[in-house]
Structure formats: structure tokens, C-alpha cells
Design goal:
The protein has six helices and three strands; from the N terminus they run αββαβαααα. The protein is mainly alpha-helical. A hairpin with a 5-residue loop joins β1 and β2. It starts with 5 loop residues before the first helix and ends with a helix.
């Protein structure tokens, strides 16, 4: 069985933000991305017909690397909020947003308007998603 390269891990992690699911061919090492099931009604699936055919035709050699669940994503945001210890006000705002109705929306609204912390969030999120991919891969 082939191994995922660091570049492939990064590519998979980035695809999660775009609402994609990854299929990895354990023999060839090829990655194939298709929209998550819940997004397929919003997208012209004809654009992904060739990729879906690749998966169907060689299904036994493909492993699905599904994006993190919403509870996993929530945990990533909570972990980031906890580690923002140089700005108590921001930390309190993030934790408060996560404890309200629509926590994802509230968290993103706060963090996307704060230059330095916005960049820290993206770096943290990328690192955590790459860790998620590595951990998922170990399950195979």
C-alpha cells in the first residue's frame, strides 16, 4: 500500500474547506475529490462524472477519507479559542460565540475580522486538519 505524501495530506485538508470528500487509491496513490453527499444537490455533478466513474470502476482499491464531522470541527475551534491566551477579551468572545446558537457562524464572524488572529486561526486550522487526515489514514 502506498503512503500519502505531505503534499497530498495538505491537498486533502484544503479540500475539506471546499466541501469535498477525498478518495485515495491505495495502489496507485491517486487522489480523487468529489463533493460531500449533502452538497451534491447544489452542484452540477456532471463536472465530477469522470472522477466518480474512476471510483466506481476501481472501488475496492479506493479508500474514502471523509472530512471531519461537525463535532470535530467544533472541537478544533474550541481548541483554538483555548490557546488564544495573549488576548483574554478575544478568548472570552470566541468561547461565548461557541456557546451560543449558530456557533460556527459566530466564531467565524469574530475571527475573520481580526487580522493577526485570523492568520493564526487559519494556520491552526490547517495544522489540525492535516493531523486529522494523518489520524484518519492510520485507521486504514
Amino acid at each position: 500500500m502506498k503512503q500519502l505524501s505531505d503534499e497530498q495530506i495538505q491537498e486533502i485538508a484544503e479540500s475539506f474547506d471546499m466541501g469535498m470528500t477525498c478518495f485515495w487509491n491505495k495502489v496507485t496513490g491517486v487522489l480523487v475529490f468529489v463533493p460531500k453527499q449533502e452538497h451534491q444537490y447544489e452542484i452540477d455533478m456532471e463536472l465530477f462524472e469522470e472522477d466518480m466513474q474512476k471510483i466506481e470502476n476501481d472501488y475496492e482499491n479506493f479508500l474514502e477519507i471523509a472530512p471531519p464531522s461537525s463535532s470535530d470541527q467544533f472541537q478544533i475551534m474550541a481548541d483554538f479559542a483555548e490557546q488564544v491566551d495573549d488576548n483574554q477579551l478575544l478568548q472570552d468572545q470566541l468561547i461565548s460565540a461557541l456557546n451560543r446558537h449558530k456557533p460556527f457562524q459566530g466564531f467565524k464572524h469574530i475571527i475573520h475580522n481580526l487580522g493577526k488572529y485570523r492568520e493564526q486561526w487559519f494556520a491552526f486550522q490547517t495544522e489540525q486538519l492535516q493531523k486529522f487526515v494523518r489520524d484518519s489514514f492510520r485507521l486504514f
